[in-house]
């Protein structure tokens, strides 16, 4: 969507007359249906004046096209500045990412993320070169006219007009070189260098013709991204489908093909417990849809899960630049749908749908439906939800089968087009030991499932000494294949004071995983820290150690909870304060037990357990001994 379009001379005139900010504000209000905050107004005022200065060069054609705040189709992303024109060989557009930054710091072990001051605090964000490059990749991969017309070329760059390199050199650190070589960064005092870049690519104007054609172009995945996904997902053994996984996958593809014939919106719900291959099926469906030419994306609220599978997908990939940008352009968080562009996507595949919430913390009140399930269904012609209701781990999580059906009906989907598939039953995580999952469920939920001895396939131990448990876990960690997880019963004091440990049990002390560690389940030094539900849900290791905190106990011949023992910094039980004691306990019982169910089912070969409540440890040990006998 074009928010502002003009030729170069017209843009400069709007800036000189002080009209540009007012024009943009009115357009954003009328076209995007949202109000502009003061920070954005100041950003436009400062950065667009700087761009006008850059464009004063008379050798940059006066009839070059200019587009501002270009809203990329299929996304909520907006390109700050676009210049269009021609040279002797190609029709060209230049994407410019504008930043007012004065400094930034590199983030270790990342070639895409930096740390800088944003929205009143120091935060992690993507490197400007990578951001501009990812926009160019998105246009190339999904814009039909660019795929079909080989004479169209896209360049990208970033302009940080306040940034002094001598004071903050990390912006050009070697780890980001792979991107700023393809998408250069221009800094304070580099106007001539920036002008030369523009003049090299654009020698004659096109009066916004190319910008207009791109905006009007159909959206469809091109052959390059189709082949890419086929290679990195379909071609990897880790994404091979087995038994029921294959059946669910083929049923989804059949339903998607039915939609293409009837044009009746569909909602598909696929229940499945831990390790049943929900994410593998989701990614294979995504790949199949892209290869069919369908505008499709993968969605999960869980950032750790998204980052984890991005890492798996891109492992050993040679072409890191395009690969990373392409994955980022089809992997999204669940908050992206609040714009409510009806039927924006052909297919949205939602992993960990049980973690969807009523209103994202950054969504303004009154905007959208304030219900992520309904927002996804609104924006998607086919919505596929993978659900495990026993992995609902906060009071904000709303992703139940009942709620998905309710939202689908509210969105006008016919009941016959809301399809609940057979639950995925085969358990692939714990060495195929379905009985281990049943054993955990019997303990946590007092279920009476018939459990066979699983200990030949899965190493499960209960320790009464946490130091011994951790030592055995370290011994198992021969190839970065073990992790320590814990219930959130200890405040995260090391976030502010890195010299202090968080979890303290007798003589044992350890920190929570680091604030900037987005790959806790993958980084080699993570075994020296403790992870929690937020960094482990949906992911796995061969061996897991679980500290069951004092929030789960054994009293009066049953497993129960004491939610007063949760850490003050834990928000999983947010909002229960006004409820009756009975209601509080009922909700806390479900949330806390579901949390430990997730932690106890992250392993493929063995799980070691230490219980802060000795009676609980004894109870679990006795249940295990009964099983072995």
UniProtKB/TrEMBL annotation:
Q: From the UniProt record, list the coiled-coil ranges.
A: none
Q: Which SUPFAM superfamilies match?
A: P-loop containing nucleoside triphosphate hydrolases
* UniProt domain Schlafen group 3-like DNA/RNA helicase: residue ranges: 265-613
Q: Which domain of life does this protein belong to?
A: Bacteria
Give the protein name, as stated in the record.
Answer: ATP/GTP binding protein
Tell me the organism.
Answer: Mesoplasma florum (strain ATCC 33453 / NBRC 100688 / NCTC 11704 / L1) (Acholeplasma florum)
Q: What taxonomic classification does the UniProt entry list for its organism?
A: Bacteria, Bacillati, Mycoplasmatota, Mollicutes, Entomoplasmatales
């Amino acid at each position: 969507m074009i928010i502002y379009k003009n030729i170069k001379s017209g843009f400069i005139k709007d800036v000189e007359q002080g009209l540009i900010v007012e024009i943009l504000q009115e357009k954003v209000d009328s076209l995007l249906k949202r109000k502009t905050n003061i920070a954005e107004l100041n950003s436009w005022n400062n950065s667009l004046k700087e761009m006008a200065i850059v464009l004063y060069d008379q050798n940059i054609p006066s009839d070059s096209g200019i587009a501002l705040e270009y809203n990329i189709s299929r996304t909520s992303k907006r390109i700050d500045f676009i210049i269009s024109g021609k040279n002797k060989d190609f029709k060209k557009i230049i994407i410019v990412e504008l930043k007012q930054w004065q400094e930034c710091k590199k983030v270790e072990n990342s070639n895409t993320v930096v740390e800088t001051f944003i929205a009143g605090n120091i935060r992690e964000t993507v490197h400007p070169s990578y951001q501009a490059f990812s926009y160019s990749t998105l246009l190339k991969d999904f814009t039909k006219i660019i795929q079909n017309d080989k004479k169209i070329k896209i360049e990208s760059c970033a302009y940080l007009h306040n940034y002094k390199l001598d004071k903050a050199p990390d912006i050009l650190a070697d780890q980001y070189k792979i991107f700023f070589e393809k998408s250069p960064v221009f800094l304070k005092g580099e106007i001539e260098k920036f002008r030369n870049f523009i003049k090299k690519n654009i020698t004659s104007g096109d009066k916004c013709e190319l910008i207009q054609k791109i905006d009007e172009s159909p959206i469809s995945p091109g052959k390059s991204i189709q082949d890419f996904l086929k290679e990195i997902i379909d071609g990897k053994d880790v994404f091979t489908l087995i038994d029921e996984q294959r059946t669910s996958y083929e049923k989804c593809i059949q339903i998607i093909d039915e939609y293409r014939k009837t044009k009746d919106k569909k909602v598909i719900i696929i229940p499945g417990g831990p390790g049943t291959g929900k994410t593998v099926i989701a990614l294979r469906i995504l790949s199949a849809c892209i290869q069919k030419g369908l505008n499709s994306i993968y969605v999960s609220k869980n950032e750790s899960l998204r980052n984890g599978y991005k890492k798996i997908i891109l492992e050993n990939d040679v072409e890191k630049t395009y690969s990373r940008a392409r994955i980022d352009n089809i992997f999204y968080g669940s908050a992206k749908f609040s714009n409510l562009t009806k039927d924006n996507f052909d297919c949205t595949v939602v992993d960990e749908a049980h973690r969807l919430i009523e209103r994202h913390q950054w969504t303004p009140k009154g905007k959208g439906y304030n219900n992520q399930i309904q927002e996804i269904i609104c924006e998607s012609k086919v919505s596929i939800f993978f659900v495990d209701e026993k992995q609902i781990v906060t009071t904000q999580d709303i992703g139940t089968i009942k709620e998905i059906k309710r939202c689908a009906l509210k969105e006008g989907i016919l009941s016959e087009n809301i399809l609940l598939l057979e639950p995925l039953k085969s358990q692939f995580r714990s060495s195929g030991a379905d009985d281990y999952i049943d054993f955990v469920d019997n303990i946590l939920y007092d279920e009476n499932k018939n459990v066979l001895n699983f200990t030949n396939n899965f190493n499960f131990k209960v320790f009464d000494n946490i130091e011994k448990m951790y030592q055995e876990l370290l011994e198992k960690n021969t190839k970065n294949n073990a992790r320590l997880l814990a219930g959130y019963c200890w405040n995260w004091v090391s976030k502010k004071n890195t010299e202090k440990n968080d979890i303290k049990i007798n003589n044992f002390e350890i920190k929570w995983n680091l604030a900037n560690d987005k790959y806790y389940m993958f980084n080699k030094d993570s075994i020296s820290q403790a992870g929690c539900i937020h960094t482990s849900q949906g992911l796995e290791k061969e061996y897991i150690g679980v500290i069951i905190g004092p929030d789960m106990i054994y009293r009066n011949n049953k497993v129960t909870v004491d939610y007063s023992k949760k850490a003050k910094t834990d928000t999983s039980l947010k909002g229960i304060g006004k409820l009756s004691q009975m209601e509080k306990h009922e909700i806390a019982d479900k949330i806390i037990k579901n949390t430990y169910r997730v932690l106890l089912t992250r392993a493929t070969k063995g799980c070691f357990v230490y219980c802060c409540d000795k009676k609980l440890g004894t109870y679990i040990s006795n249940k295990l001994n009964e099983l072995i006998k």
